[in-house]
């Protein structure tokens, strides 16, 4: 619907607007001012950003302290380092103690491309779903990202927002309103349901168009809210479809695919499920995003091919 925009840019503008509206927001970074694209905020509010250096554990602990002191603390750094290096601090300082910290996992999934597995974040949803008390979101477009951030800054409690590192086109018009827990149906269809979160929603939108050209009616479902998730709405959206494919730039275990599998199993939905993402036991390919998704079989063309194969097998 519009030109692509980096979600980090949306994030920073949301921070600026929040402070101007009177929210006592303090960003904490771990030598990640470039990653967070936070310079406009720093120029407008000198001294408000806390930079702890390359010390993710200290970043999270500092944010927890700021929150306990009454600030709205937000951490902004690369998702793979936030989740891996500060795992215990997130578990104890943020989740267990229920502190009012918003964790922004930037450049999630395979955003770092050729920098390979040390810089890929393909397990963050699984880790965060294992922790209690923290809400988890993955925006798929600039408008949705802005609304998720506005909600998170007003919500009192821990939040993790999985942020893609590439510029994303807009999916929604001005009437769109994000609701925590919501399951968003972007396209109706009865043959197969394509379910995705974050940037891979764009892949299933494209895949559904390809399938329509082949005479297959695919329902397109976006799940921006991993926790909370309206599982009744998800169950209703999936019901009636012969097959379901989940798509995520994440390991197929523990993320969106697992969430959908749990809902289907607990509801005894009579449909075949295929989880697409990084396969079990593998790491994301060290490559640009297009090749990464093609290599692991969750680009639009591969999704469409998988859908046709599933429907053909089902008869």
Structure description:
- The protein has 315 residues and is an alpha/beta fold.
- Helices cover 40% and strands 20% of the residues.
- The protein has a seven-stranded mixed sheet, sandwiched between helices. It has a five-stranded mixed sheet with strand order 7-9-8-11-12, sandwiched between helices.
- Strand 1, helix 2 and strand 2 form a beta-alpha-beta unit.
- The chain is globular.
Rg over alpha carbons? 19 Å
**Biggest β-sheet, characterized?**
7 strands, mixed
List the total number of helices: 12
Helix share, percent:
25-40%
Shape: globular
* Tally of strands: 12
Intertermini distance: 37 Å
Average pLDDT over all residues: 96
Unreliable runs? none
Classify the oligomer: single chain
Proportion of β residues? Answer: 15-25%
Strand order of the largest sheet: 2-1-3-4-6-5-10
Structural class: alpha/beta
Sketch the topology as an H/E string, one letter per element: HEHEHEHHEHEHEEEHEEHEHEHH
Topology:
Layout: H1 7-20, E1 25-29, H2 39-44, E2 50-51, H3 56-68, E3 72-78, H4 79-85, H5 87-96, E4 101-108, H6 124-130, E5 135-137, H7 142-154, E6 159-164, E7 184-187, E8 192-196, H8 201-213, E9 218-222, E10 225-227, H9 231-238, E11 243-251, H10 256-267, E12 272-278, H11 289-295, H12 300-314
Parallel strand pairs: 1-2, 1-3, 3-4, 4-6, 5-6, 8-9, 8-11, 11-12
Antiparallel strand pairs: 5-10, 7-9
Helix pairs in contact: 1-7, 3-5, 8-12, 9-10
